[in-house]
Design brief:
Number of strands: 13
Order of helices and strands: EHEHEHEHEHEHEHEHHEHEHEHEHEHH
Oligomer: single chain
Radius of gyration: 20 Å
Strand order of the largest sheet: 3-2-1-4-5-6-7
Bound molecules: uridine-diphosphate-N-acetylglucosamine, uridine-5'-diphosphate
Strand content: 15-25%
CATH topology of the largest domain: Rossmann fold
Structural class: alpha/beta
Largest sheet: 7 strands, parallel
Length: about 350
């Protein structure tokens, strides 16, 4: 059985790393399974791409398309064209796509036009905000996939509400759990402190890159101002996404108290999550990783796809309002109990095994 995996953005390398490891395991155990990796090039800096392949021992991509740093339409369109020619040549049984990026949608559309079965890992998530490019990508990808691997029960419920049973005869929904938990558990013991980073005791780990925050100067200003204020009393470490870096350089933002560093590899990131006392982010993945490591999280977005974390009290949604961000920070610091790990919300680290098993049986 041949699977073509389409990757392109940082979180996809981390997600696919766990599934690739399981595929190799099964192949070594004698199963007929082969993975061909296509890297679209959506993320291309060494610290946004290469580092994850090296650290997670993901096979070198069989194809590298070099399509990054473009508008949504140009990027997605060029990817579809190049992926299509690879699919025609390789004739895979499955195309596997992850998450909700432009690379995800391009892979799914190219496969769909050729009637190749699509496996969507991280299906069913919804923010119910159609202005987010990710929401459009994930809804369209789900609609044309054959197997929808859902990380949570909420994701399964979303698909049920959308009438998945009547979409097409061969669509199946599988509650696989979240592959990011597989990675977090596997790499926890291998975490490495970032070298050359001075950490002065209790710190906050922060990331900001969402288009809705970075492309709106008012939102970005409020977020940066709140973080800079927090950093007067507690170290705030901000591994800075290149998108945010470019925008901060173009405007007038006071970042003088922040510990800004370049994006770090996954082993450094796992160390930072495990050793900070609070995560503040607009990342999808980091919200869950905070939970996996028992760290409270403040999410600087208006909505989240990971609703179970908010319901469990492990995550607070604050949007991009400075006062709300600061209030949430002070509340979190003063509450002694963190409501985490009350139940296993994400499948317990066995998602990759479930996914590969379904593909081998199907
Ligand atoms: C993309 C995904 C988002 C995901 C994020 C993970 C879409 C629509 N968005 O957003 O869902 O959360 O990746 O990080 O697919 N850049 C570099 N070097 C790089 C990568 C990006 O300089 O290696 C800069 C370029 O100026 C680029 C910009 O960042 O134009 C934005 O990159 P892009 O991939 O379009 O979107 P992200 O914000 O990274
Ligand atoms: N991450 C990383 N280095 C960084 C910032 C993030 O390894 O400097 C990891 C993070 O731990 C998580 C993933 O990247 O596993 C999340 O990716 P990102 O926030 O870029 O995308 P999102 O999850 O929001 O789609």
């Amino acid at each position: 059985m041949k699977i073509i995996t389409i990757l392109g953005a940082r979180p996809q390398f981390i997600k696919a790393g766990s599934v690739s490891r399981e595929i190799i395991c099964k192949r070594e155990a004698g199963c007929n399974i082969q993975e061909v990796i296509v890297h679209t090039g959506q993320h291309y800096d060494a610290n946004m791409s290469d580092v994850f392949f090296e650290e997670m021992h993901i096979s070198k991509p069989d194809y590298f398309l070099g399509i990054g740093g473009k508008t949504h339409g140009a990027m997605t369109g060029q990817m579809i064209e190049k992926i299509e020619s690879i699919l025609v040549k390789e004739e895979p049984d499955w195309v596997m796509v992850y998450g909700d990026t432009n690379s995800t949608l391009a892979g799914a559309i190219a496969a769909s036009k050729l009637h190749i079965k699509i496996a969507h890992v991280e299906a069913g998530l919804r923010s119910f905000n159609m202005r987010m490019p990710e929401e459009v990508n994930r809804i369209l990808t789900d609609r044309i996939s054959s197997v929808l691997f859902c990380p949570t029960q909420a994701a399964v419920d979303n698909l049920t509400k959308e009438g998945v049973d009547s979409w097409q005869t061969d669509t199946s929904v599988v509650l696989s759990g979240d592959v990011m938990q597989d990675g977090a558990l596997f790499y926890k013991g291998l975490a490495q402190k970032p070298s050359n980073l001075n950490i002065a005791g209790d710190c906050v780990l922060c990331t900001i890159h969402r288009a809705e925050n970075t492309d709106d100067p008012q939102r970005l200003k409020q977020i940066i101002s709140a973080l800079n204020e927090i950093a007067q009393t507690q170290q705030v470490i901000l591994p800075l996404h290149p998108r945010t870096k470019k925008l901060l350089e173009m405007g007038e933002y006071d970042t003088s108290n922040l510990s800004i560093i370049d994006p770090v590899g996954y082993l450094n990131m796992v160390w930072l999550i495990d050793n900070c006392s609070l995560v503040m982010t607009d990342s999808g993945g980091l919200q869950k990783e905070a939970y996996f490591f028992g760290v409270p999280c403040i999410t600087m977005r208006d909505e989240t796809e990971w609703v179970e974390l908010v319901e469990a009290g492990a995550n607070v949604l604050v949007g991009a309002d400075k006062k709300r961000i600061l209030d949430a920070y002070h509340n979190t610091k003063s509450s002694s109990v963190v409501e985490t790990h009350s139940e296993d919300l994400y499948g317990g680290g066995k998602a990759s095994k479930r996914i590969v098993k379904v593909l081998l049986n199907g």
